[in-house]
Specification:
The protein has 79 residues and is of the alpha+beta class. It is built from four helices and two strands. It is 61% helix and 15% strand. The protein has a two-stranded antiparallel sheet. 10% of the residues are buried.
Length: 79
């Protein structure tokens, strides 16, 4: 099992749902979709996300805020 799979399985990350506006459209995305996309991301992206999650977890930072940041990136980079 990968670090990311284990991290999301073991952490009790609260469910969040966001409305993100981009290019005049509103997109609906939640924590589950972001986590699914993290798990299928290219290896170089997974590596950076893993590093960031480890730092945030060590600092007891809000993981949901980081997932919102990633959700925004997903929406803005969706093709």
């Amino acid at each position: 099992m990968s670090f990311l799979s284990k991290f999301f399985e073991e952490k009790e990350i609260p469910y969040a749902f966001w409305e993100i506006e981009h290019n005049g459209m509103v997109h609906f995305i939640d924590t589950d979709v972001v986590i699914e996309n993290i798990l299928i991301a290219p290896e170089n992206e997974k590596k950076k996300i893993t590093e960031t999650l480890k730092i945030l977890d060590f600092k007891h930072a809000n993981i949901v805020d980081y997932l919102y940041f990633l959700a925004t990136a997903l929406v803005k980079n969706y093709k």
